[in-house]
Amino acid sequence: MNLPGHQRPTFVRALLERSLEIARATPEVFTTLPDAAALGRIREVTHWQDTPLSALPVTVKDLFDVEGEVTTAGSRVLGPGGVGRAPARRDATAVARLRAAGATLFGRTNMSEFAFSGVGVNPHFGTPPNPADTRAARIPGGSTSGGAVSVANGCAWVALGSDTGGSLRIPAALCGVVGFKSTARLVSGNGVFPLAPSLDTVGAITRSVRDAALAHQILSGRPAAGDTRPLARLRLAVVRGLLLQDLDDTVSRAYARALSVLSAGGAQLVEIELPELDEVATQAAALGTFPAAESHALHRGWLDAHNALYDPRVLGRIRRGASMLAADYLDLLAWRADWQRRVGAQLQGFDAVLSPTVPMVAPPLAQVAPGAERDEAFFRTNGLLLRNPTLVNLLDGCALSLPCHRPESGELPVGLMLWHTALQDDGVLHAAALVENTLRESALGGLHRGAIGMQP
Predict the structure, then answer these.
(1) 167 is an active site residue
(2) Between 20 and 30 A from 354 (CA), which of 11, 15, 76, 363?
(3) What distance in Å separates the CA atoms of residue 401 and residue 382, rounded to the nearest whole number?
(4) Residues whose CB is less than 8 angstroms from the CB of residue 239 and which lie 6 or more positions away in sequence, other chains included
(5) Which of 54, 117, 143, 182 is catalytic?
């Protein structure tokens, strides 16, 4: 922030006041808005904080414990009429690290109930409006729905969230912002209400790759490894097959254009086959899934007493976990370990893999809103949204979604996903920064050429 020191407090106060104005105008984004005490602290910002976030507004997904507040995970089950959770006695580790970095915690954001959906619909607290299209009500994506919207509409600088099968990257892609899922073990999940501990990852949604890298350094408590290689020195895999199936026209066009721009910019793009990806659906059908089994283990004591408080779509998926045998669960663990080894061997020698984050732009909310008559459309949409990103969670890998659409041409947001195996986070972030810059320069160049009568 290149402002003289004496001007910075004024800037931060104005930014936070503007964030509060946006938050109050979009109540569906939050389960808890900043209270009067928080507003008082905002107005008392009188000096520049020499910290990484310097009082900037950060929203917190309603999965994370915040001292003195009740974590409800976007559900009524954990509230007063249900389990009746007590207020948290301390901050989740991720929240504490953001506080230590100087963040102004700016409300708890709405989400898919118990983080069990990539669509972002919540029948209890409403569905956050996707700001990418003000003419039509479109889904925000989930499960970190409110977090993505809070960044996309300018309310938050960073949104703290989680990712079990794409819950950071899906809403980032549909809302036109950046979502980074790190290698799970790098960021503590202490104080976070779980969905499937085998897959759960703590991370952030931001406005840029640079901010994503900063947020990751704060959350992981480790500096990034330096990498100064240019785009032309990167070797990027482009996987044919499953990841490119069922793309809608906007995603297909934006993805093809992004690859063309990167190739013209000097990136080494290598098409590969990765048949191991096709195994996932077969294994899930035969053995079950981690979210169903692990969420049932957590919820089974509440299901009968509080079943009426659950979103029926979530309740049904949790109950499926009851039918999974212990032997099947152990077989699934063994298959996953072997599958990770085989996929990792195929990706050796590449700096990152490129794919569309999700195969569609955000569909209208009316198609998938709560209601049994729309369940078929909801589950079809949910399956498509989860298909690509959840593969990275199974891989125990890292991935970043960044925008690759052209909003100036009227395109709805499209996400480009860069991903790799475990502990390749720094390399993926470096590659993503170069890709983001190359795509931005191409878009700006196209606008300039169009202004003087040339074709982009």
Answers:
(1) yes
(2) 363
(3) 18
(4) 271, 272, 273, 274, 277, 353, 354, 355
(5) 143
Closest CA to 206 of 231, 165, 175: 175
Put the strands of the sheet holding 398-403 in their side by side order. Answer: 30-32, 104-109, 57-61, 158-162, 202-206, 178-181, 398-403, 415-420, 352-356, 235-239, 268-272
- Label residue 393 by pLDDT band (50, 70, 90): very high
**CATH superfamily name and code, 5-451:** Amidase signature (AS) domain (3.90.1300.10)
Of 167, 182, 220, 401, the active-site residue reads: 167
Q: Could you say which of 19, 54, 61, 198 is catalytic?
A: 61
Catalytic residue list contains 409: no
110, 118 Cβ separation under 8 angstroms: no
What is residue 33's predicted lDDT score, i.e. its pLDDT? 79
User: Which residue is listed with tokens 């619909």?
Assistant: 121
Backbone angles phi, psi at 352, to 5 degrees: -170, 165
Share of the chain above pLDDT 70, in %: 92
Angle at alpha carbon of residue 197, lines to 194 and 198, rounded to 5°? 155
Give 37's pLDDT tier (boundaries 50, 70, 90).
low
> Is the pLDDT assigned to residue 38 strictly greater than 80?
no
pTM above 0.85, yes or no: yes
Region of residue 94 (phi > 0: left; psi between -120 and 50: alpha; otherwise: beta)? alpha
Contact 34, 40 (CB under 8 A): no
Q: Give the model's confidence band at 8: pLDDT under 50 very low, under 70 low, under 90 confident, else very high.
A: low
Backbone angles phi, psi at 46, to 5 degrees: -120, -5
54 is catalytic: no
The tokens of 212 are what? Answer: 């994503």
Q: Which long-range contacts (CB under 8 A, 24 or more apart) does 225-231 make?
A: 225/426, 227/426, 227/427, 227/430, 229/430, 230/266, 230/434, 231/262, 231/265, 231/266, 231/267, 231/434, 231/435, 231/438
User: What is the per-residue DSSP string for 183-238?
Assistant: -GGGS--TTB--S-TTT--EEEEESSHHHHHHHHHHHHT-PPPP----GGG-EEEE
Q: Which two tokens stand for residue 238?
A: 């482009």
